[in-house]
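Our collaborator T.R. sent over the components below with a one-line note: 'Predict the complex.' Nothing else. No constraints on interfaces, no templates requested, no preferences about which chain binds where. So this is a plain run: every listed entity goes in together, and whatever single assembly comes back becomes the starting point for the next discussion.
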Amino acid sequence: FSTFAGEPKWAKQVLTYRIVNYTPDLRPADVNAAIKKALSVWSSVTPLRFIKKDRGDADIMISFAARDHNDFIPFDGPGGSLAHAYAPGKDFGGDAHFDEDETWTKSTEGTNLFYVAAHEFGHSLGLFHSKDPNALMYPVYRKFDPSVLPLHQDDISGIQYLYGPSPNTNNDQRESTEIKDPTESKDPALPSICDSNLTFDAVTTFRGEIMFFKDKHIWRKHPAVSTADFNLISSFWPLLPPGVDAAYEIPENDETVIFKDNEFWVVRGDTIVPGYPQKLYTLGFSKDIMKIDAAFHNINEGKTYYFIADKFWSYDKRSQSMDRKSLLIRDAFPGINGKIDAVFQYENFLYFFYGKKQFEFDLDKKRVTRFLKTNFWIPC
Amino acid sequence: FPANTRQTKEEDIQLIQKYLENYYGFEKDGESSVWKSNSPIIQKLKEMQEFFGLEVTGKPDSGTLDVVQKRRCGFPDIAG
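Returned assembly:
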């Protein structure tokens, strides 16, 4: 393997990518899947994670174009040069361009988009061409077996030279013959937003969006946008465990607090604030409290509420004190009886989730105003 | 026959030269494009043959032509 001169590489582990335009040769969903799968080839052997963006700038901008396309390397029509990508860096750095004069396919006929994209993203991450004719980073396009992970040991050695191995799988990826695309609906373990029995582990606002946690995935929904993004939690925070218990945002600090068992993490954007996780008792709980069910931060009151079974504690930011004694949930939130799964505040309402039900609670009227389905916020 | 062969040969030479420009940093100018034993283009051709594990002849032989006509990544094979 070889790297670019000066060994440029990304200084962060979570990278964003955006598909700027689409080839007419394939359905957009097939392009999305091929690109996602090509990126997961590299994330499967490194700590790197990739987040898809639908607008604005991204680290890896992906586009299709023919002939001259505003960089210094025009394409050459059908055949010959298929695509190119730039070494890590700002502006053009990391971007990948695909020659629209090729016939892009998702089979072994024509030019397979997944296979070419996996090679080009090797460049986007800092790898140069390899002389090993079996390596993915070999410059010449060859027929390949789509059921086998396209990475050769030479590629894995190269990318791990730059970024180290994946934190949660063994180094040798050659046993895994198939790349599991997290969005593949065939995977029975994937939660479905259309499931009428859907429950959530935690829900929180997050920089203007609402984040719904379920097992190892999150749905992200912006109230003003009709669609929701579906990501692996690890694509945001690789070191966060799946199946979180609770989460809440403190918008004024641009912090989101995420709980699992008797620990909690504070994140800012896609970065875990150094010094976390910390133990629950450091918040003022007694040491026998081993987990919380749900939490929200009331920005108007400056208070944070923690729910455990049918009780809650509140922490007053101003006096910096936690309630000495717990109170019954139903006393402060009439109509909300018993243990809840999740809660978040949106405008002047609270949304309590338990089981398949969601209760809207009006903070002014101090009563439940609507019964909603769990997936009310996300279009099925 | 000779005419055809000569034309094909010319096309092959053009194809290889273009390939060396695109992927091996060969910079075409009057002198350097002459195919003499130690001319720059021969050096670049040997670099390419070495990269692909071909016999390093410095000649536009069939093995070299075969590689040159294959689809590939548009990024160079040597650091620019």
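Summary for T.R.: The longest helix of chain A spans residues 28-43.
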